[in-house]
Write a structure and sequence with these properties.
Chain A is an alpha+beta fold. Chain A is 39% helix and 17% strand. In chain A, helix 7 crosses helix 8 (259-273) and helix 14 packs across helix 16 (504-521). In chain B, strands 3-2-1-4-5 form a five-stranded antiparallel beta sheet. The chains are: A alpha+beta, B alpha+beta.
Chain lengths: 554, 101
């Protein structure tokens, strides 16, 4: 993992001291809220529906056990004993008090963490494939590049007041687990003639105008990455609209000006600034890469794992759903589900955080990851340790075997916490998970991604859910719109609206009709919901969702 | 024709704790049932201005509609209902804590 340099440490310390003084000046009345708000947002502090909320960056979703322990300690000392992991690989504390926030930031700094640029119109926390450095299908670990981008973008003087927020995601695998096509800039590592470079995707995004990103460069040599990124953001900074918040994201800039025009401007800027990058960034990258060296993997015949699978059905079920293929055949990538049926997606108690940290330390080469799907990953576990890991997780309520299934739902905080929300999303996720657990259909249904947002801003990624649910306020009542056929992978697509929305009472039965219809419609059990949808289109699913309309038409 | 003025309360968040608060005749409360109900538009506007001036204590004051058919004011919109009651995913939050004090 990356370790802070003296420069990083001094920078964070100074920023925290500045913010401490700003908080004091707000409390003593020297600063008005209008003056203070941009300052607190720059440091990740929001004021939400019921309380302040502190959003802490977890760069590219990577943590060590010590950091996870501190996240747990902060939850106990200054919050309500839990934290909420988000779709941007961050953690949010929902109940801090203003006076305590500087102390929370100092505690984070002790373990090389901060909340800088987790809000505001800046380049936000850089996200990456949560299986980075472990996945069997990977070209190379994307995190050194993500770290380089983080260092370049943090406090970048030119990019502190962009037209709107700016999100970058990186993946090193052809199987895109980082939703790169729904980011302002998506970077996909590609190999050409044995040379590693990047496919640069620009102008993707969800929100009120969902768009799949477009390829700006199909192959960018690695050493050209920073000057090229700087050119893109620089062009956007000048060209992006500042007259209308809803048209300010780069997706609109690219859409309104056209990809070719945007590309020409980027290339022109690139020609100008490329010579300023004399190779210092590449020296830094080389140093960062050594921080991400692979752990020393254990060589041991895999026996305990096979025995446990044979004798313990619950372990077998969990290992069927919650493991992914590791680059080392004797290892596995463990996804710990934060989606126990009926629980709040993405929440972990301080006790659960400590347990996961301890398991990472003992069995997982001291590494943890947060996924954008709001789960926690132990990226490197020897298969012989899996039975021990599973029983410890299970005892702590973390043994749910549902990764990639219908109850592994992404849900934004919605109106239970968020000031922007137009409806609740968490209770819908809770009810869907509980209902399908009762029906015992989850494993039969197979891979199915439900994603729920409580407003048009789409933090819950509903547009790229196989089933997307969007909560709206319709004449003072919660109303839920369904979209179908969305996909966040390398074959990204935006879901199609199925028809009129459903009330909070109607939405769970509607989802049930939809899923039962899929079971009838699929060509064979191996055909997933998304495959069936792509084969048959909207019509048969629409018929299941709106039986009355069907009856009236008949 | 101008729409008839409907009863309102002044609500905001507390600066230090972030809590949902409501204006009373003499200060602030965390319970909607204790809020001062404003039935006159000019009076409501004035009370909101007064609240907004208390920048060292409150953040983001605004007028919220309330239903006054019963003795205590009740929210008319579900957003205000959640603000008054706290998160609905499970019982926690400041409103829940205050119930046990």
């Amino acid at each position: 993992m990356y370790n802070y340099t003296d420069f990083d440490t001094a920078f964070i310390k100074e920023r925290n001291a500045q913010f401490r003084a700003q908080v004091e000046r707000r409390i003593d009345g020297s600063l008005t809220e209008d003056e203070f708000k941009p300052l607190r947002l720059m440091n990740g502090l929001y004021l939400q529906l019921h309380a302040y909320m502190l959003r802490v960056a977890i760069p590219y979703g990577t943590l060590n056990s010590r950091q996870m322990h501190v996240l747990a300690d902060i939850a106990d000392k200054w919050d309500k004993g839990y934290g909420h992991f988000t779709t941007r690989q961050n953690i949010q504390y929902n109940w801090p008090q203003l006076r305590d926030v500087p102390d929370m930031l100092d505690a984070l700094a002790e373990v090389q963490m901060h909340a800088i640029q987790t809000s505001g119109n800046t380049i936000r926390n850089v996200t990456a494939d949560h299986f980075a450095g472990a996945a069997a299908d990977e070209i190379a670990d994307p995190r050194p590049v993500a770290e380089l981008i983080r260092q370049w973008s943090t406090d970048h003087p030119e990019f502190q007041f962009l037209p709107r927020k700016f999100k970058v995601a990186v993946t090193g695998s052809p199987n895109d687990r980082a939703v790169t096509r729904a980011h302002d800039i998506g970077l996909r590592m590609v190999e050409r003639d044995g040379v590693v470079g990047f496919e640069v995707i620009v102008g993707g995004g969800l929100g009120r105008t969902p768009m799949i990103g477009k390829v700006l460069r199909d192959f960018l040599p690695r050493e050209d990455l920073l000057p090229y990124l700087e050119s893109i953001v620089s062009v956007y900074n000048l060209l992006g609209r500042r007259d209308n918040k809803y048209k300010a994201r780069i997706k609109i800039t690219v859409h309104e000006n056209g990809l070719d025009d945007f590309r020409a401007r980027v290339e022109e800027r690139y020609a100008l600034i490329r010579p300023q990058f004399t190779g210092v960034d590449q020296q830094m990258l080389a140093a960062i890469e050594s921080d991400f060296a692979l752990p020393e993997f254990r060589r041991e015949e895999v026996r305990a794992y096979h025995e446990a699978r044979q004798h313990y059905p619950a372990f077998r079920s969990w290992s069927d759903t919650n493991l992914a293929e590791h680059r080392e055949p004797d290892y596995a990538i463990v996804t710990i589900s934060l989606k126990a049926h009926g629980a709040t997606p993405g929440d972990a108690t301080s006790g659960q955080m400590r347990l996961m940290a301890d398991l990472a330390k003992r069995y997982g080469h001291d590494e943890l990851r947060i996924s954008h799907e709001q789960n926690v990953i132990l990226p490197h576990v020897h298969k012989n340790d899996l039975p021990s890991v599973y029983s410890a997780l299970r005892a702590a309520g973390l043994g749910t075997a549902n990764i990639g299934l219908i109850s592994d739902i992404i849900a934004c905080p919605g109106m239970d916490y968020c000031a922007l929300a137009t409806a609740r999303s968490i209770p819908i996720a809770q009810e869907i998970a509980t209902r399908f657990d009762e029906l015992k259909l989850e494993h039969d249904v197979g891979p199915l991604k439900i994603k729920i947002s409580g407003c048009i801003n789409a933090c819950g990624h509903h547009h790229v859910g196989h089933i997307g649910i969007l909560g709206l306020d319709r004449a003072g009542v919660e109303n839920y719109q369904i979209t179908l056929g969305g996909d966040g992978t390398e074959a990204a697509s935006i879901g199609e609206r199925a028809g009129p929305g459903f009330s909070a009472d109607e939405i769970i039965p509607a989802i049930e009709r939809l899923v039962l219809a899929y079971l009838d419609l699929r060509a064979e059990p191996a055909e997933t919901f998304l495959q069936t949808y792509r084969r048959l289109g909207l019509a048969p699913f629409k018929a299941a969702l709106y039986p009355e309309a069907q009856a009236n038409a008949a | 024709m101008a729409r008839a003025f409907t009863p309102k309360v002044v609500t905001a968040n507390a600066l230090l704790e972030g809590d949902v608060i409501y204006q009373t005749a003499s200060g602030w409360t965390r319970n909607l049932s204790e809020a001062e109900v404003l039935t006159d538009e000019a009076d409501a506007d004035l009370r909101l201005i007064e609240a907004s001036q208390q920048t060292d204590a409150v953040v983001g004051a605004y007028l919220a509609d309330v239903d006054t058919t019963e003795a205590a004011p009740k929210p008319t919109h579900f957003r205000e209902d959640f603000r008054a009651r706290g998160p609905s995913n499970y019982a926690h939050g400041k409103q829940e804590a205050s119930r046990h004090v």
